[in-house]
Amino acid sequence: MAKTKKKAGDINSSSMADIAFLLLIFFLVTTTMDVDTGMKRTLPPWIDPTEQQNDVDVNERNVLKVNVSRSGAIMVGTDEYRPNDLRRSGEHSRLSREVYYFLVDPNRSDKEAKTIDGGTYNISKGLVSLKADDETEYKVYLKVQDELTHAFNLYRDDIAREVYGMAYDELSELEAQNIRKAVRMQISEAEPNDQTKK
Hints:
By secondary structure, this protein is α/β, with parallel strands linked by helices. 34% of the residues lie in helices and 17% in strands. It has helices at residues 16-30, 94-104, 138-164, 173-182, 194-197; strands spanning 63-68, 74-76, 79-81, 111-116, 119-124, 127-132, 187-190. A five-stranded mixed β-sheet has the order 3-2-1-6-7, covered by helices on one side. Strands 4-5 form a two-stranded antiparallel ribbon.
């Protein structure tokens, strides 16, 4: 007797769309997205150009000028720095050390008595004026910004130890806020000048 071949049954694919949809929802819900945070900078408020401007006088002694040229050369005051001077050796790079000592040394920037949590402390009035050419490499510009921020953070750390007896990153949110109010990250970004064009 000859065997008859059975025809294979069709696969029911009516629920495939539902399964694909559920998988899509699952991956959308469980996947994390990387978010670029950028630099933490507080931009100055917008000023109407038609209104009269009241310039804020800043003592020249309290300003450290940092110029970044399109070639990557960095001028801090009258001293020339190269991109290699942005590499940290230990706690400081050459640039962050210069900015840090500018803030700390009373012979280089004036100090102002500020009240922090009931005590009075001398805080630097120092401001860093950063000028960069429009054609400066982005990575050099960001590295300069990082080192300036690093110097201010180290200075905040010193003040936190003086006020609270512990490092800035060990403080409570309220204590850290008190330090941030007293030690502002004073980095002014100015228009390029002749020094940055070279």
